[in-house]
Design a protein that fits this description.
69% of the residues lie in helices and 2% in strands. The chain is built from seven helices and two strands. It has a two-stranded antiparallel ribbon with strand order 1-2. The longest helix has 37 residues, at 140-176.
Length: 178
């Protein structure tokens, strides 16, 4: 005879720490980052290898606007992460990935080669995918932090555009003697 306390088929109980609407918001963030990471860093596979790359290094080949457009896509994803309450520590790691990609991306040939390897959006997707801390309401300091980072990103991208045009101008003068 079995006791009523013993359960022959133990059932796993899952604890819900967040209200359902917060969980849906957090789950909605992961597909966004997955899509951006796929398009920007992994959409094209080199035949016969496992190496993949995306539009980020290809767009980066366009002088001036390439790095800017890549930064805008990454900044959009970062803003969405802040809106959905990703903790500041993770935002800083994600921002660092974006800044490294953009700062090195300023260097004409080396930066484009670096983008093939670094894949900042894929790294940010991994951060979001591994994020299990739950979400919180974004505070004013979170927004100030992200706005400051976006301003820094804008300055870096504008400096990159200026350097690109200076290099292009020097190349034109060198080749055409003007």
């Amino acid at each position: 005879m079995q006791s009523k306390i013993e359960n022959p088929n133990p059932k796993i109980v899952e604890w819900e720490l967040l209200p359902p609407e917060e969980k849906r918001k957090r789950e909605g963030l992961e597909p966004l980052f997955k899509w951006i990471a796929f398009i920007m860093d992994e959409i094209i596979r080199v035949p016969g290898t496992k190496f993949r790359f995306g539009l980020d290094p290809l767009i980066g080949l366009i002088p001036g606007i390439g790095d800017t457009s890549s930064a805008l896509v990454s900044a959009f994803a970062l803003i969405q992460a802040v809106r959905l309450g990703v903790p500041r520590v993770l935002l800083m790691r994600m921002t660092f990935n974006i800044l490294v990609n953009e700062v090195v991306g300023i260097i004409p040939v080396i930066g484009d080669s670096f983008s093939f390897w670094f894949k900042s959006n894929a790294r940010n997707y991994e951060i979001i995918k591994n994020h299990r801390l739950g979400s919180s309401v974004p505070r004013r300091s979170d927004w100030l932090f992200v706005i400051g980072i976006l301003i820094l990103l804008l300055v870096i991208v504008c400096a990159g555009i200026a350097v690109s045009f200076l290099i292009l101008g020097a190349m034109v003068r060198l080749f055409f003697g003007r």
